[in-house]
Prior knowledge:
CATH topology of the largest domain in chain B: Rossmann fold
CATH architecture of the largest domain in chain B: 3-Layer(aba) Sandwich
CATH class of the largest domain in chain B: Alpha Beta
Strand order of the largest sheet of chain B: 9-8-10-11-12-15-16
Number of strands of chain B: 16
Largest sheet of chain B: 7 strands, mixed
Shape of chain B: globular
Oligomer: heterotrimer
Largest sheet of chain C: 2 strands, antiparallel
Radius of gyration of chain B: 21 Å
Helix content of chain B: 40-55%
Largest interface: B-C, 60 and 51 residues
Structural class of chain C: mainly alpha
Helix content of chain C: over 70%
Distance between the termini of chain C: 13 Å
Number of domains of chain B: 2
Strand order of the largest sheet of chain C: 1-4
Distance between the termini of chain B: 54 Å
Number of strands of chain C: 4
Amino acid sequence: MDQLIFAGEVFLNGLMTGVMYALVALGFVLIFKASGVFNYAQGVLALFAALTLVGIQQGQIPFAHLINAAFGTSLHHFGWTVPAVLAIALTAGVMVLLAFLIEKLVLKHLVGQEPIILFMATIGLAYFLEGLGDVMWGADIKTLDVGLPQGISDAIESTTANWFGYGFFIDRLDIWATVIAAALVAALVAFSQYTKQGRAMRAVADDHQAALSVGISLRFIWVMVWSIAGFVALVAGIMWGTKSGVQFSLSLIALKALPVLMLGGFTSIPGAIVGGLIIGVGEKLFEFLIGPMVGGATENWFAYVLALLFLVFRPQGLFGERIIERV
Amino acid sequence: MKTTVPALAAAMLMAASPVMADLVVPNMSYRTGPYAANGIPYADGFADYFTLLNERDGGIGGQLIQVPECETAYNTEKGVECYESLKSQDPLVLNPLSTGITYQLIPKVSVDDIVLYTPGYGRTSAKNGEVFEWVFNAPANYWDGASVAVSHILDQEGGDLSGKKIALVYHNSAYGKEPIRTLQGLSEKHGFDLLEIPVDAPGQEQKSQWLQIRREKPDYVIMYAWGVMNQVAIQEAVNIRFPMDKFIGIWWSGSENDVTPAGAGADGYKSLTFHGVGQDYPLYDDLRTHVIDAGKAAGAGDQMGNVIYSRGVYAALVIAEAIAKAQELAGTPEIDGAQLRDGFEALEITPERMAELGLPDFGQPIALSCDNHGGAGLARIQQWDAGAGEWSLITDWIEPDAEILQPLIDEDSTAYAQEAGIEPRCN
Amino acid sequence: MIYREAGDFKTSYRSDGQTFPIRLDRWGYYAVLAVAFGVLPFVIDDYWANAVFVPFLIYAIAALGLNILTGYAGQVSLGTGGFMAVGAYAVYKLMTAFPDISVMIHILLAGGITAGVGVLFGLPSLRIKGFYLAVATLAAQFFLVWLFNKVPWFYNNSASGQITAPTRTVLDIAVTGPTATAPAKYLTCLVFVVALAWVARNLTRGTIGRKWMAIRDMDIAAEIIGVNPLAAKLSAFAVSSFFIGIAGALLFAVYLGAAEVGEAFGINKSFLVLFMIIIGGLGSIFGSFAGAAFLVLLPVLLKNTLVGGFGWPTDLAAHIELMVVGALIVTFLIVEPHGLARLWQLAKEKLRLWPFPH
Lengths: 327, 427, 358
């Protein structure tokens, strides 16, 4: 009986973790759908967004280290701090600018290339952004605080304690993440269904050539999609950055999003969410049930093996578009 | 391809290795990569101390100290590249601050006659100087740390741990696995249950592990973490309301970087340390006058006072003392690696000497010998005060349990000696 | 003018089908071999061997292996690091269990073991394709790393899980362990590289290579004309893993000397080798070498230029290095998506007509 209650707690926490994974996976899906680019740099985008947010918030001088090394000055801070909301808005602006530059400097030149080449280009981009983020804001760890609460939720603990005699642990940050993710998905769906740009985006996702022929600007759509992905990265960066502080390792969350993508399919927004939930619950339950028998720390590989098993039965992922092959 | 590119590279490389006559103590640092946040303060402290010696005293024994820096990014292959490029500059001693790179260098340094100094990390059994001629890991090692942590817990529990449960949360790598055998031995001796909880690198996501801790309610948690795993673990411990004063990290899990992201919740978190904390030492005034204010600080110059910065200073200090000793023994200021090894083996740092150096009561007395390369292995407990934002030392020096450790060290070093075909020396 | 095929008459099919049909190419090839075997071992020092040549040769083997799988057979794999770990741990177990048998045989056996593991993880490729397969191979990567970290048998129960290569000799010269000299390490790797490159070249232009390419170009069509996809895909996985296993064994035993699985054979290694073949050129033997040379040399070169040449702080240099590597990769893909091999080929075409291009 105890085991069952514990499993319930693990299950709930797995769902919450799944939402956090899905937040990262969402950015991948958006870009893949609209441009066929498998954007490995999504994790680094999250890191870059979080670094920029903290930098702006704390009034850090960008490139201070470079300037100091070149001119022998000792600049660090502007000496002001920016309120969280304004800083988020400014960071979103930076991400739009970044999307514009990426389109202008990279994607424009790679139209029509094979997917693997585009994938590689995004890895190159990931390296570049990683270096840029460090040069701009420094490689030391930064604390990100935009006022999101953290820690155990007392209400849930006491309620479940009354029901089961064991208080469940749910992190308030995870609850917030769930709410924000839901709002984000709702906003994305509304945007793509009810606005002109959103419809154009869906048209591009369906067929580049057909979209071009009816007068949709592919380049505008790409800039827009990358901006949205940048914004999603910002949200993911805030969530993960609040959890662990902002530092290099933040970019590695991309690795947690890959099995989610495989499972959900690269082209489906609901797939990213459902995939995230399945991966989150699956790896947590496996670690809980089987982990102690094999020595633990199974989460990294189990997510991939789970996704692999799903794929053997559905090679296009759960919600992916059916692969039709003709000779 | 094989002809043109290397020609260009050759031109670049020639320019890269200037001829040096001074004593060379390289700084194998990592200011980038996943562990940069920990690597930066250490590298700064290490370099700043030698800069201080050069600026204030004109080096050691009249010889200036060169501290060429090489970036390893905590990556073993870059470590090899660094080692080879530093080797051409005749370094005396290396301090890579990476257990992985240390393991790689241990066989190499004994061929190339370079001392490897790994304070508080690296291969624990290198304490046995009979087998590991060139490696020194004074003043304390991982196993000492585990034992001291348990001793502290014993102290808290009034000397009886039977029926208690202690969890070890560890970085699932060579480093994190080090204390397991020690703790297993101690758990047999004191009758506590040991719960081993591995966390895979990087450790961004630890929900399962902390839910497990919440379920199994260990009385104490000992942690061996590094990098982002530190911050996440402390945050998760705060989240599940684990009593912070029963949460003890090894010295690599006890810097300001690790606790500040968790904010006020981290108040009371304990960690081990083998040196003093804070800036209340006369040496820091000298550092400020001669290095920081003179604009000669390494890095951004903003790390002073950080625990890991102090550790870098301490590592540099021990090396500097060993160099001075070696110069005294050799009768010449221009020493080589073998003479430095002799200097290390004759090294004695008394409390009076520490006070003289401007760091009274900062470190434990160190006295090394041919067979003891690891010192006494004492450590203290520090506790985080989130309100004041500083660490404070809450215990005196605690001794590790040699009864458990010595057999383990003998066993591991003998195994290595057999594998590598080394004859024990020092007889 | 000098570089041309005119006047180079072929009198047999055999000579017509040789790898280097142009005389100058042939000479160039022999000259490179002669320098590599006859000159370099006598002039090479520790830095050049350990920082440049040994890693270059080892990564060239890994890149050859991955290129067989990805470039020739069209199966994208991100499990290279995991397979290299299999090679490394296999050679470690063999070296410590049978110290009397030559290490060269151990290295070959390690390749064989890796081939077996590769086939096992290649099985899903029969159903999963493209990016899904790439991500699926990550399952191999993470699982193998976890396994080697978790099971003490693999690292002979050492306290920390590090494996250290003992000293082993070939013809009484140490090739592994700390006493191995730079020329010995270099020559060991070189022998494997030359032999394996020869194997790769001849496999890829024979029946089996043509089957791989048919699968790559369109697997359904290939199946219809009589290529067995099971045999073709799995043989590609086997051969590729054999190469990668040998690269892993050499990386651990000859180059690093000690390794920890998560650090030395992590996901970054998989990406690095994939980069090499894409920058070098997919489906090209030369490309594997060019890509490995580019990605091994570039960081060393940049570091020495920025830190040694300009005296920049190491951290700034490392960050800029990342940016430069990233930017170069993107630039390369934009300028020549088919890699260095294609550039080389274009240069040769031009050279053939030079100085009378019309």
